[in-house]
């Protein structure tokens, strides 16, 4: 069951050029393209004539031309040209999707187009501030449900075990962390403080600390599938809990999960660093470290998905440390019911 009446990331902005760019979202084949004015469009990847995929076409004056028989469709899905035919049948159209280009993302609305409110799209200004927050981004194809990936991100107790050699560090530090969970109408936020703890390997590679640090991890879940992360660490004794804007590590990460099928998804992520901003090698080094860590998540969550498909979820047990994940799932369940009402 999908939450359709919501905005999802369909692509990074740079992925969509004039050449058609195909993706599957929620089991639906979609083709993205830019018209000659640079405006992004998204259509069902199926010509209404003979069902040829539109991804084999090209962008021409007026819209996207089918590569099989030359019909042209504009961004609204309406056929505007049929070679050697003046009259265009009313049924000569394909489904179109509302799309918005914002903050380096291409957002797509998969539900009722009448409910597509652009003002509800997440603001993420850090992607537009390359001077203060240099960053690099990626997208993974994950062979697991987007829900399991959101579970993973809302469960920080795994970090010390899965990511010991990179962003994690000592597992006991994570288990003993002080955590505050704050629920909201459309998601929740939690903050974890790992006080007077050794810096993890990733932090030590980019900043020289005097010793132990006061470390934080703040995650905001915005339903159905976006997580905004702010994490970092400062030398002990500098009042990090009162003021995080000090010398040390400060990293912001956007995580966006987009369902491909019920058991696969796209994982869009981008780490930005608020320290040593004028050193491109730091941007690259941090990206490599986090790429390594997130591939560890990919490996374990894909294995988890395979096991759940084989054995089911009936024998899983919730723990106290699952508080944020459990509240997040409740929000998802409510939105699923609202998006898929039973007559």
Automatic annotation (TrEMBL):
Record-linked Pfam families: Rieske, VanA_C
Molecular function GO terms recorded: 2 iron, 2 sulfur cluster binding; iron ion binding; methyltransferase activity; monooxygenase activity
Entry keyword set: 2Fe-2S, Iron, Iron-sulfur, Metal-binding, Methyltransferase, Monooxygenase, Oxidoreductase, Transferase
Residue stretches making up the Rieske domain: 7-108
UniProt KW DNA-binding keyword: no
CDD domains: RHO_alpha_C_DMO-like
Residues spanning the membrane: none
SUPFAM superfamilies in alphabetical order: Bet v1-like (SSF55961), ISP domain (SSF50022)
GO biological process: methylation
PANTHER family per UniProt: 3-KETOSTEROID-9-ALPHA-MONOOXYGENASE, OXYGENASE COMPONENT (PTHR21266:SF60), IRON-SULFUR DOMAIN CONTAINING PROTEIN (PTHR21266)
Name assigned to this protein: Vanillate O-demethylase monooxygenase subunit
Source lineage: Bacteria, Pseudomonadati, Pseudomonadota, Betaproteobacteria, Burkholderiales
